[in-house]
Amino acid sequence: MKNCKIFQETAVILSVIFLFFLLLMRTFSDRETRTAGDTETVSAENASPATLPQIALTFDDGPSRQYTPALLDGLKERGVPATFFLIGKNIEGNEDLVLRMQEEGHLIGNHTYNHVELDRVTAETAREEIERTGNRIYEITGVYPTYIRPPFGAWKKNLELSVSMLPVLWDIDTLDWKSRNADSIVAIVEANAADGSIILMHDGYESSVVAALRVVDLLTSQGYEFVTADTFLVT
Ligand code: NI
Description:
The strands form 2 sheets. Strands 1, 2, 3, 6, 7 and 8 form a 6-stranded parallel sheet that branches. A two-stranded parallel sheet has the order 4-5. It has 9 helices and 8 strands. The protein is of the alpha/beta class and 235 residues long. α6 (159-163) links the parallel β4 (147-148) and β5. Residues 16-48 have low confidence and may be disordered. Helix content is 53%, strand content 13%.
C-alpha cells in the first residue's frame, strides 16, 4: 500500500511538473507569436516610406538620329524613364531607336505624322495624322500608343472620343528649341519643378540632351523620382 501511495504521489508531482512545462511552453510560444506579429507591423511600416516627389521628362518631335541615342544612353546610365512623343514621319530609318525606347522602359506617345495643328485641319485629317503614327509605332513595338502630345498644344474638342487617345500637355515649358542653351533650360526647370510637373523638351538638339541629363542629376539630388507621364494621368 505504501509503495502504491508513493507511486500516486509521484504521479501527481510529475503531472504537476508536466502541466507547469506545458504552461511555460505556451507562454513562450505566445510571446514568440506576439513578437512575430510586432515585427510584421514594423516591417509593414518600413515598407511604405514617405512618398518621393515625382516629375516627368517629356521629349517631342523625335526620334533624332543625331541626338536621341546620346539621350537614351544618359537616361539608361541613370536608370531614369522618360516619355517620347514621336512625329510619325521621323520614325522612318529610326525604327531601332523606337524599339530601344520601349526596351529601356520609356513611354512612347503620338505627336501626329506631319506635326500638324490639329484644330486647323479637318476631323478626317486629324484622325489620319494620329492613326498613321500610332500604326507605325505599333508595327515596331507591338504596342499601340494611348497618349498623344498635340503639336502646339492645339487639341480639337472631343477628338479623343474618335481616336481613343488621351492628350498630354505640360506645365514646364523649357523653350529649349528657342534658346538652345543648356544653362537656360536647366534654370527654367529648377525654378518651376514641383511634385507632379510635366517638363516639355525636344530631343533634336544637343543643348536639350545636355540639359535633360543635368536636370535628371539635379532633381534626383533634390529627392525627385522620375516617372513616365502616364503616372499623372491614369485615374
Ligand atoms: Ni512638336
